[in-house]
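Subject: Interface between my chains keeps coming out wrong

I've been trying for a while to get a sensible model of this assembly. When I model each chain on its own everything looks fine, but I need the whole thing in one frame so I can look at the contacts. Pasting all components below, labels as-is. Any help appreciated, I'm running out of ideas.
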Amino acid sequence: MKKKTLGIFYGKTCSGCDVQLLDLGEKFVELLEYYDLVFWSLAVDTKFDELDKIERIDVAIIHGSIRTDEQKERLKYVREKSDVLVAFGTCACYGGIIGLANLLLKDDVLKIVYAQTPSTVNPEHVVPSPITPINDVKLKLPVLEPWVQPLSAFVHVEVFVPGCPPPVKSIEELATFLINYAKTGEKPTRSIIIAEEKSLCDVCPRNPKASRKIIIPKFRRLHEVKIDENKCFLEQGIICLGPVTRAGCDARCIKANVPCRGCMGPAPNVIDMASKFITSIASLVEIDKERMYSDEELIKKLEEIPDPAGYFSRFTLPSGLIKHRVKKG
Amino acid sequence: MTLLEYEPKIIAFCCQWCGYAGADLAGVQRLEYPPNVVIIRVPCTGRIDFQAVLYAFKNGADGVLIAGCHTPSDCHYISGNYKCLKRFALFRKYLEQLGINPRRLRLEWISATEGVKFANVVKDFVRELKELGKLEIE
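Reply #2:
Try treating it as a single job with all components included. I did that and got this:
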């Protein structure tokens, strides 16, 4: 049997997904019985230019989002060469946590990173420029695009594997899919997401099964309260993104007594996580007791949440309805 | 040739018991108000998914008006208006973070008898939006 080729590529990533791929363990070895690794900076020493010699990459796995012109060009190049493109990890699927940079204009991001953070020492005000001449040699650097974008903003993606990083269960499912693809050559007619078609609350062990109302009297931060390990986070006033987040992570944060932060991306039928979550959580505040307050007092109670965009669309801002800061608002 | 004056587009979500009835009354009373507003009737302001509000902004609305029943106790469904109020408070902040002026979103309590108020609110909102200029979302 002729082996198929597999490449693992990078966008703007922290490379946590790389390490997570190794968590596959023995199944990874099984995968390599069907695939030849042609590109993976972590494991195989291939330079990107050498890919020109390879005719087809059957399966390309990309993790990380797209921020620079180089990443964009590489993505398009890889897409042209590959049969199946896998967006691996939340950054590739939805933009990821680095997508929060979209709340700032590009120039402001550079200013903050290269001048304003307390740990920055940059007396010469060096900022990255596309071409830097050093002794007759011109060094080229990729240029930042205006915004962080997920892969699907540029190309068609066959398989999405969300999660930051994707849970091992998802990766096993991906491996099974890839092995099956290598055997039969069948690929899905439309994009698939390797996760569940439910919201996290549907599978959450803390879901208050009895139909009692969830009431939030006051929002609390994690350190302000002793968390009851069996009670829904929302009931304790701790913001948990479970209602709008896709299930498939096996509630791993919840089981570690930490509220959901929404890394699996929007639940089915949710387009914009933040506005959907605002719709959901705001109505829980002081249910049935609203009349004890004036309108202004209620508004103040809600405004205790200092950063709705950052918290509620922490991983999905670049794929929400409004994907980045509006310049003329 | 003179340039046409900028006319803002407003989407108004009106609850069927108060806001919409108020708009209806404004019509019956033959009150004049600017034609910039497109009214969407909803069962209750508490039923508005704020994804829809953001969707309106994204697809060309310069302002969104939500008209519901007066607090504390006009709501036909007991507390729908309060749900909307709470969402509105948080959503305004979200808009601001996205760089959209929160003044583009208005929540007004307009009862079925307040046709005049509806007309005035629309007039005032149009004036304010003309001040703010066009919302441009790339």
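Reply #3:
Confirming on my end. Residues 168-184 of chain A form the longest helix (17 residues).
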